[in-house]
Structure prediction request, 583 residues.
Amino acid sequence: MKSLSLNKQIFLFFILFIFSSDLISDESVDIWKKENLNKNNGPAKIEKIASKKKKETRIDINAKVPKINLISSSNLTILEDSIFGIYEPNENNLTLDMWSNSEGTRIKDTIERINKIQLSSFAEKVFENTLFTISRLPEQNMTDEEFTNYKIDWLIKNKKDGLISTFLNKNKNFPNKSKIVKYLVDKNISKANLNDACEKIDLIGTDVKESYLDQFKIICLIGKNKKNEALLLIEILREQELSNKFFDNKINYLLGVSSKEDKKIDDTNLLNFYLSSIAISDFNYIPNKKTDVKIWQYLVNANLINIDNFKDQNQIKELEIAANNNSVAKSYVLEVYKNIKFDFNDLLNIDQVYTNLDPINARALIYQKTLLSENTETKLKYLFLLKDLFKKDNLSNVFREYLSQELSILEFEKIPTEYQQLATENIIYKKEETLGKIKYNDKTYHTSKVIKHFVEKNISIKITDKELKNIHKKLKKNKKYQISLMDVTLLESLKKDNFLIPKEIELEEILKNNPPPAELSNLVKNNEIGLFLLRIVELIGEDELLDLDSQTVYFINHLFIEAGLTKLRDKILITVLPDRTKI
Prediction:
């Protein structure tokens, strides 16, 4: 890499200082609208366009953890003992050393298994809190970069944009920072939102050198009509060999340095594709099954997809495959189907006609028939026929949501008997763990008013103690009453909170006869709390708390108590113990 002269370095520092303060504040011209490029008047008017040995001391879980100086923005290197995260340890009764006693390979293997599971809301929240608690690294077989990559990859895969912004704000420098900022930039470009995309540039320090991001800074400068700053930055990139011929040609044209319009379209990445779309006056692009999902999204949001362009079978097939792969909205396929011409006789004799058509036209004809069907039975007949036609060509994902929506708006009592089960099976129900109002009763310990100790804030110890004595007195009279594991879950938690459990309840004996899984218990005993929580996440998986059986709830709660995780324990108790009204 070529080095810059001292004068250029000084000048660059001055310009970047101005750039960092002005990039957001200045009013911009909308670079997304091709008409603002004013190409017909030539490049002269382009100025109108719109940019890591670890300490072994375990800190007290009840002590307030001081704020950690992660790394100041002035540091240009990552410290050996760098710690990256979002949540301070005391937020969830955790410690800085929650990973220190665990072997790195076991942590990595567990995270990779978890990443293959569609987690429930509770499991995901535990995973998030565990992975993003500020903490030291394991002492064996895991590097700072590896651990950070697991965090970054999870955020990106699950599109946790809010958490990404928080992570960037709390951690000024960390390995592969450019990857996460590039994700944010690409996402905003794909939404055809230049201003938001350019704002993300402020989240990355000038010490991070990534040509993709530096090139985008130039586009942002052009978008802010800051021609001189853009010219300086492109010169620096060229001297450092961080530019390329394609980028140079497009930028030169946009800046008015060159009057020659380069007609080449580059779809190898979203940045180059975006440049192509704004620097070619008669831009036209037909996407296909190999087109990146971000480019599909940009085409849609920038109104660069014309349904009329999809005229032949191959183009429509590419659109169907893209929609099935979630690269583009499914509605585009149905819109194409709606615009395929059929005559009245085709629709009148549809049961005979569609069998002689190619798959695309057959689906289009059946789709149009469903739109025209006012009779419920007829509509259902062709909806399910269309479902079968999509399934036959491995395109079921295109039609699944639409079918569910159409079935959901039908009155169930008006659906013919022969279609009722089929309709129920094809409606997509979004499962939500919505909790109704608590109904206290004296039928069991765990549904009595004793649980107010965990549900309500500032409830006095005397009141809880009184409620415990009252419910025990009543249930003791019932000779047939047997203490359940849910009762044990409550009573053990109360004991942990220093309440006196009635002597008649042989709690210690019950606990002794119901040991939790040895592996999980050993993790807690060995103070491997981070790995323990990961294994709990893996165990729960797709299940919400209300889906767990009483034995699983009991031993998870027991282990949380043993690990000192009272906040997580309380979340379980208030969710699974009480009776609630239906919502």
Summary: Residues 211 and 242 are 5 Å apart (CA to CA). The beta strands are 438-439, 579-580.
